[in-house]
Amino acid sequence: MPELPQVEALADFLRTDLVGSVIERLEVGAISALKTFDPPPDALVGRTVTAINRFGKHLDVDAGGLHLVFHLARAGWLVWREKVPSTVIKPGKSRIALRVRLQGGAGFDLTEAGTQRKLAVWIVRDPQQVPSIASLGPDPMAPGFTPAVFRQILAGAGRAQLKGILRDQHVIAGIGNAYSDEILHDAKLSPFKPAANLTDDEVERLYAAIRDGLAAATERARGLAARDIKADKRAQLRIHGHAGDPCPVCGTPIASVNFADSSLQYCPVCQTGGKKLADRRMSKLLK
């Protein structure tokens, strides 16, 4: 799933390649992806793209007062095309959920792999009309995400576990399963530690791990072409997806906790005092 660094890198790419272009046509390939019907897709035709914005994991294509907003979900991606094929896509016949054609021949597809259909597209007059944007927590890379604000978030979370707090988009926007593993490892904290049990030093370490880790990942991905951003994410992860590999800090094999539809990875020595965490395959913690 694209997380804050990858979505911000996509935004940078689109600011260079998309802003100033005129939308010629939209083709909907997956009716289930389109979450709004007023304004209709045709309302974007003839409009010039004036800005690209990011809200958490959402991307917003501002077309002169109308907004094409999309969330790539777990298996979605943006495929940029210097020359869009002339054939018109047929709904339900390919992995393409939406195709945007631009005047001059370029454009992009929003694609989704797998059988689950969670990629979402909205056409709105204001991004705040998208419910999942209106309910977002603060952006961890924004100037207003200060240590004081973070302490308030943790105080309000009570005994909620750190892994869940970091992934909850209503609490903090943009962090997903992969970067929450990386952040918690950098902070040397158990994914299941309750927020209320953190010491002042642990709060400071966690705040620094969030800001520094996301900033480094975003900077590394900045400037990449859309086709290279996913591979860059895989290459930079040191903990998530590396069960059984040696911890890059202490050499202990990285352990995993499996859930019904996901998993997390951690170092037993660096994060849990040598304790192995129980498998939670039936847990709903990360849903």
Automatic annotation (TrEMBL):
Q: What PANTHER family does the database record attribute to this sequence?
A: FORMAMIDOPYRIMIDINE-DNA GLYCOSYLASE
Q: Which InterPro entries match?
A: FPG_cat, FPG_N, H2TH_FPG, Ribosomal_uS13-like_H2TH, Znf_DNA_glyclase/AP_lyase, Znf_FPG/IleRS
Give this protein's Gene Ontology molecular function annotations: 8-oxo-7,8-dihydroguanine DNA N-glycosylase activity; class I DNA-(apurinic or apyrimidinic site) endonuclease activity; damaged DNA binding; zinc ion binding
Q: Which reaction does it catalyse?
A: Hydrolysis of DNA containing ring-opened 7-methylguanine residues, releasing 2,6-diamino-4-hydroxy-5-(N-methyl)formamidopyrimidine
Q: Which gene encodes it?
A: mutM1
Q: Which protein, by its recorded name, is this?
A: Formamidopyrimidine-DNA glycosylase (Fapy-DNA glycosylase) (DNA-(Apurinic or apyrimidinic site) lyase mutM) (AP lyase mutM)
Pfam annotation, one family: H2TH
Q: Which organism is it from?
A: Propionibacterium freudenreichii subsp. shermanii (strain ATCC 9614 / DSM 4902 / CIP 103027 / NCIMB 8099 / CIRM-BIA1)
Q: Which SUPFAM superfamilies match?
A: Glucocorticoid receptor-like (DNA-binding domain), N-terminal domain of MutM-like DNA repair proteins, S13-like H2TH domain
Cofactor(s) required for function per UniProt: Zn(2+)
Q: What is the lineage of its organism?
A: Bacteria, Bacillati, Actinomycetota, Actinomycetes, Propionibacteriales
CDD domains in the record: BaFpgNei_N_1 (cd08973)
Q: Does the keyword Cell membrane apply?
A: no
What EC identifiers does the entry list?
A: 3.2.2.23, 4.2.99.18
What's this protein's family per the entry? Belongs to the FPG family.
Lineage top rank: taxon: Bacteria
Query: Which GO biological-process labels does this protein carry?
Result: base-excision repair
Give the keywords, sorted. DNA damage, DNA repair, DNA-binding, Glycosidase, Hydrolase, Lyase, Metal-binding, Multifunctional enzyme, Zinc, Zinc-finger
Where the record annotates domain FPG-type, the positions are 238-272
Residue ranges occupied by any Formamidopyrimidine-DNA glycosylase catalytic domain in the UniProt entry: 2-98
